[in-house]
Amino acid sequence: MENESGRPPRRRWKRLAWGAGVLAVLGLGGLQVKRFLGPPKAEASSAPAKPAKGKNGKEKEPAVISVRAVEVGPISSYTTATANLVAEYEVKILAEAEGKVIEVLVEEGDRVGKGGSLVKIDPTEARLNVTKAELALRNAELTLERSEQMAAQKLISAQELDKARYERDRSVQELAEARLRLGKTNVIAPFSGRVTVRNVQLGQTLKIGEELFTFADFDPLVARIFLPEREVLDLEIGQDVRLSLRASETTRFRGRIRQISPVVDTSSGTVKVTVEAVAPPPSARPGAFVSVEVLRETRPRALLVPRGAVIRELQEAHVFVVADGKTARKRVVEVGLEEGDRLEIVKGLKAGEPVVTSGQGGLKDESAVAVASPAPQG
Question: Fewer CB within 10 Å of terminal CB in the chain, N or C?
Answer without folding.
Answer: N
